[in-house]
Amino acid sequence: MKEQIIQADLILTMDADNTIIEEGAVLVRDGLIACVGKAGEIIARHPDVPVKHLSQRLLMPGLINAHCHSGMLRGTAEGLPVWSWLQQFVDPMHRVLLPEEAKLSSLLCYSEALLSGTTTVVDMWRYMEGSAEVAMRTGIRAVLVPYVAEHPDHDYFETLNSNEALINRWHLGANGRIHVWVGLEHLFYALPQAWQRIAAMCKDYQVGFHTHSNESSFDVEETLRRYQLRPIQALEKFGLLDAKKVLLAHCVWVNDEEIALLAERHTGVVHNPVSNMKLASGAAPVEKMLQAGVAVGLGTDGEKENNNLDMFEEMKVSSLLAKFVSLDAAALDAWAICRMATVDGARALGMEDSIGSLEEGKAADMIAVRLDTPRMTPLITRGPLMNIHHNLVHAVQGGDVDMTMIAGEIRVENGKLTQIDLSEIIRDVNLQVGGLFARREAWLKQRGAAVNELERLER
């Protein structure tokens, strides 16, 4: 039996009452939380258990990035709305991506996530055997969702066959830290027989389903044109809301009927405010969804449409965007956002029984946030001016995290990764990314030549 007590000045439990414990401690036993409470009491009851004292630190649940894409296109896919951006930057990359580049991308992104306080990531990506190996190596908790397409126009993505193979090889691997779900890039990227197989795979393997939905106005207009239904209604009609757990990214352009359907079907939603702003997609009606009882988590989306994977930044932008579009300074309060990044994110994934809050019986996934920074000053811990949650949402940055623990194992300590050398990852990405860009450029030129020749022949 492996035991340790983690003591901190403040513990933010994110339980049902958003309990804050001053001079608190967490007893960790075999990767699980055995007890949370006052440090003096826990240490007295367990005098032989080693204590790790984190002075000037706040201990809280690890953040849950509920929608992300590994990648290495940061800063090179700019200035286009979502569908043009996909066609000109992202899909051509997928056509030429190599497995070793996909694996290195996951290593880069999971490292960035850990360093900024994310303990669980939902990653939709390619060649995810490599992603699973990276999750094993880094210790992150990962929901792996292959970027599936089952359509002749999109035959350069993953397939349901490769998705099924990944489930058989990796689902519940790494002592349950790795989950594999069925993925689909978008409803448009599959034919009807594929929708049927997705529903069957989710039922047979008892795994979740994840896709993008209602991200842009074009998404809604095109779904109405093709199926005479709005996107959420189409997903329901085609059996794609029947999985054990369904998680939909974005849901920017949902109407009241769709929100009611999401709530009725207990479908989780991921709000990606930075991506939605950058790609000019719009602002999701988050408060309406929360009021309807929809479980809404937070996600960064990928490094190419966000440019970083800092979930604390995502929390701040969520707050500001809600206030900006509603012209209501009280919109989407700080507690709601803290919950979206932790326990409500877990609920959106159907994992609230095991992660998302610091409570007895849950996984020991927690982070330490520095209190000795200007961003946490002044710090008022009680009374009507208590500002812990406001500081976490509006002031803290990912770099203020200096410890990340997952399943009782410390993966970041003193602000540094404990398992891997970050400088090597950065060097390797910079060495490999040129080849990816060169192959993408060559494909685009070849495609341009083919299009020009077709136009010449048509004339």
Polypeptide structure, described:
The protein is of the alpha/beta class and 459 residues long. Helix content is 42%, strand content 22%. Helix 7 links the parallel strand 9 (182-184) and strand 10 (209-213). 50% of the residues are buried.
Structural class: alpha/beta
Instruction: State the total count of DSSP E strands.
Output: 17
Return Rg in Å: 22 Å
Helix content: 40-55%
Number of helices, counting only DSSP H or I runs of 4 residues or more: 18
Mean pLDDT: 96
- Envelope shape: globular
Distance N to C terminus? 77 Å
Report the uncertain regions. 449-459
Strand order within the widest sheet? 3-2-1-4-14-15-16-17
Instruction: Bin the strand percentage.
Output: 15-25%
The major β-sheet equals: 8 strands, mixed
InterPro entries: Amidohydro-rel (IPR006680), Metal-dep_hydrolase_composite (IPR011059), Metal_Hydrolase (IPR032466), MTA/SAH_deaminase (IPR050287)
Pfam families: Amidohydro_1
Keywords: Hydrolase
Protein name: Atrazine chlorohydrolase
Provide keyphrases for this structure.
single chain, 459 residues, alpha/beta, eight-stranded mixed sheet, five-stranded parallel sheet, 18 helices, 42% helix, globular, Metal_Hydrolase, Metal-dep_hydrolase_composite
Briefly, what is this?
The chain is of the alpha/beta class. It is built from 18 helices and 17 strands. The C terminus is likely disordered.
Task: Tell me the layout of helices and strands.
Blueprint: E1 3-12, E2 20-29, E3 32-38, H1 39-45, E4 51-61, E5 63-68, H2 82-96, H3 99-115, E6 118-125, H4 128-138, E7 141-146, H5 160-170, H6 173-176, E8 178-180, E9 182-184, H7 192-205, E10 209-213, H8 217-227, H9 231-237, E11 246-250, H10 256-264, E12 268-271, H11 273-278, H12 286-291, E13 296-298, H13 303-306, H14 311-326, H15 334-340, H16 343-348, E14 366-370, H17 388-394, E15 401-406, E16 409-413, E17 416-417, H18 422-458
Helix pairs in contact: 2-18, 3-4, 3-18, 14-15, 15-17
